[in-house]
Design brief:
This protein is an alpha+beta fold. The protein has five helices and seven strands; from the N terminus they run H-H-E-E-E-H-H-E-H-E-E-E. Helix 1 packs across helix 2 and helix 4 packs parallel to helix 5. The protein starts with 5 loop residues before the first helix and ends with a strand.
């Protein structure tokens, strides 16, 4: 597939996410704890691996080279989460916005992981900044997949991400795709958001 677009990537990511979730995968932690079925409890890397596996089964995407982890050309020991195309046309950082745990209790660490301004927290804001400042010579983007809960939408967190990130980098328009009904009883609904990442803002 030539001429990959961000809209196409976000739409395909969301579709593959929903299909992977429908398989009711069970995440088991390093301590042996098994969580409730669904993609919601999985770590970012594990969820993305399952999404890529589903993309490989899609006739429209099975011929598109893509994979996890590509080294940043100017930063030692730093990797970007996803790449698309051969040679690469896009590099993409991925973040999860999961505001509750497997038991439904609030998980405020997610707020830090999305909007912390500090590089040490590896937030979506700092990932976008790192991408903007990188020497990748291809298109750059960030994807956030998030979950909505009764009386707690992910929307305000996404709005905060955009407001903070736009002060640091030239962030493109938001692409958004609904995930539909999901398997997990808590992480039962969600959305995938994507933005093209442009250069750093001179005033940042």
């Amino acid at each position: 597939m030539s001429g990959l677009t961000l809209e196409g990537i976000v739409t395909a990511f969301a579709g593959a996410f929903a299909r992977a979730d429908a398989n009711a995968p069970v995440w088991t932690s390093s301590t042996g704890r098994a969580y409730q079925a669904g993609l919601g409890p999985h770590t970012e890397n594990a969820a993305v691996a399952l999404v890529l596996a589903e993309l490989g089964k899609d006739p429209d995407w099975s011929g598109v080279p893509c994979g996890q982890f590509v080294d940043y050309p100017n930063q030692r020991a730093q990797v970007c989460d996803l790449w698309f195309g051969e040679p690469a046309q896009w590099v993409v950082e991925v973040k999860m916005a999961r505001l509750r745990g497997d038991n439904g209790k609030p998980d405020d660490m997610t707020i830090k992981k999305v909007i912390s301004p500090y590089a040490r927290d590896h937030s979506a804001v700092s990932d976008a900044t790192k991408l903007a400042e990188s020497e990748f010579s291809v298109e750059k983007a960030i994807i956030i997949y998030g979950f909505d809960y009764p009386n707690q939408s992910v929307e305000p967190l996404i709005d905060a991400f955009e407001a903070l990130t736009n002060r640091k980098v030239e962030l493109g328009p938001r692409c958004e795709v609904d995930l539909g009904a999901l398997v997990h009883p808590v992480h039962a609904a969600g959305r995938v958001f994507g933005w093209r990442v442009g250069p750093p803002r001179k005033s940042a």
